Amino acid sequence: MVNERDELGPNLVPDYMTSVKDGAFYGWPYSYYGQHVDERVQPQRPDLVEKAIPPDYALSSHVAPLGLAFYTVQALPEKYRGGAFVGEHGSWDRDRFNGYKVVFVPFADGRPNGKAEDVVTGFLTSDGKARGRPVGVAVDRSGALLIADDVGNTVWRVTAASPSS
Questions:
Q1: Which in 33, 71, 87, 110 has the greatest CB count within 10 A?
Q2: What local confidence, expressed as pLDDT, does residue 103 receive?
């Protein structure tokens, strides 16, 4: 999980998730999201920017992903197996806040594959105030998703719905 840089606008730069490759260069501080040059950095290093590799998967801008948990058990619906839950702590520098939720990113063959799906929302009030901010996600022994919320001072536990009788 990478929290990209600020002060390039409300829709730049996407935060992202990426694999870590031995010896790879990801751009910091000379470029962002691969080879997009950050003109604010001096001196410039075009030799390094040329080597910068793009990330594997873009989230949205300024969502501040702080938690990541891969789901490998069977307590939640099957569509979650093999993918990753991401706790998005949320933006602070946008007119319209972004993040403040937990999303699920599907994986196939060990790589992100498909659009992120909102899983747990409601951390923002209708007037845009944070009543919670997901900071960490984990999976407990029973297969439930745990969400640490550092504004609500709560650990949320998400389980599958019980079958109706």
A1: 87
A2: 97
Residue 59 pLDDT: 94
Q: Which of 106, 105, 102 is nearest to 146 (CA)?
A: 102
Distance CA 157, CA 102 (A): 12
**What Rg value do the Cα atoms of the chain yield, rounded?**
18
Q: All domains of the chain, ordered by start, with CATH?
A: 22-55 (no CATH), 59-165 (2.40.10.500)
Q: Which two tokens stand for residue 25?
A: 């260069």
**Locus of tokens 């490759």:** 21
Please identify which residue in the block is written with the tokens 């001072």. 153
- Tens of pLDDT, residues 7-24: 888 788 899 999 999 999
- What is d(CA 7, CA 62) in angstroms, rounded to the nearest whole number? 10
In order, the DSSP letters of 67-125 are EEEE--SSSS-GGGTT-EEEEE---SSSSS----EEEEE-EETTEE-S--EEEE---B-
- In this predicted structure, the answer to whether residue 165 has a pLDDT above a threshold of 80 is no
Return all residues near 7 (Cβ < 8 A) that are at least 6 apart: 93
Confidence of residue 156 (pLDDT cuts 50, 70, 90): very high
Pick 86 or 94 by higher pLDDT: 86
Beta-carbon count within 10 A of 104 CB = 21
